[in-house]
Amino acid sequence: MLAAVAAAALGISVLVVLALRTAPASGSASPPVAYGFDGHSGWHGGQIRPHAIAFGAGGSLLARRVSWTTWKRSVARGHGTVLVDNCSPNCAQGSYARSAATLTLSAPRRRDGHAYFSKLLMTWTQGGLAQSETFRWSVYQGGSVPFWH
User: Fold this and answer.
1) Which of 31, 48, 119, 140 is the most buried (most CB within 10 A)?
2) In a domain, 41, yes or no
3) Is residue 6 part of a domain?
């Protein structure tokens, strides 16, 4: 009888240890996602380490082949190729200038219990001049769907 009680206690101890190892640590949460990348729009398709983003209705500003060097709870940093349409004679017939770019996601917010980045800083060089654009993930005044603007 004593052996059966000892075996049961050992079995319970093993189950407790396994449960503690597989349970998430308190305070650990998934890292924030980024919305509006890889062809997704609005609150759909939030991703960790997405690969590409297009800004504007005609895709006049694009970042492709994005590779992330850091993805933490407070900030994500990466690099890729930025393509800027010169829109000459119009944006549909314009040509793209390409250059290396850095992207920094920051300002995490929460929606429905999930973290997402709400600020994007993109920097690149165009025609020998440093360029920098800051975008916010939010709903434009009068709109209903969030996007980078």
Assistant:
1) 119
2) yes
3) no
Distance of alpha carbon 17 from the chain centroid: 34
Tokens of 29: 């949460």
Domain containing residue 141: 30-148
Q: DSSP letters along 2-68, please?
A: HHHHHHHHHHHHHHHHHHHHHSPPTT--PPPBB-S-TT--TTS--BSS---EEESTT--EEEEEEEE
Nearest to 32 by CA among 76, 67, 78, 2: 76
Q: What does the chain come to in residues?
A: 149
Residue located via tokens 């793209």: 96
Residue 2 included in any domain: no
Q: How many domains, the chain?
A: 1
Note the pTM of the prediction, 2 decimals: 0.77
> Which two structure tokens, joined as six digits, stand for 2?
């004593």
